[in-house]
Amino acid sequence: QRKTRAYRHDLRHHLQYLAGCIEEGQTERAQAYISGICAEIEAQKVQWYCENDTANLILSAFAQRASRDGISLNAAVTLPPFLLISDSDLCVLLSNALENALHACKGADDSIEVQTYEKNGKFFLQVVNDCREAVRFEDGIPVTDRPGHGIGVSSICAIVERYGGLYSFSVKEGKF
To answer: What is the pTM of this model?
Structure first.
């Protein structure tokens, strides 16, 4: 969003440069400049999933990462601009769930499905991803022995508990 605002602010300067190129007959230079600006803007593109800017930013970033890895990410998101949970908690929930889903997926033909909505003041999030490896559970929570991993699930659980919510994790028919 910061970069988009900067581009809008600098648009006048870009147009002045392009006008100068055109006046000097340097159309190839102008075309190359336009292509460069378009590539930079497209790289920062935020997809519109719902009315909530935080969710849109996070989902867009993970959708780009998934796409680069050949993973399909489909999202059914219906969230209002403001939620009863804080933006920082929403960020932690979505980012950790999607990060774990990306790690579980192995690329081509794997997919991640995200569903989230708010109803009667309650926030619902479900992330389903392909899961080819065995998952070990302790007290219904997935655990790992890999150093530096498993912290995200703990963060998810702590936030859900702080809001008095419920969480569940499972693997069925190759889907986590």
So the answer is: 0.76
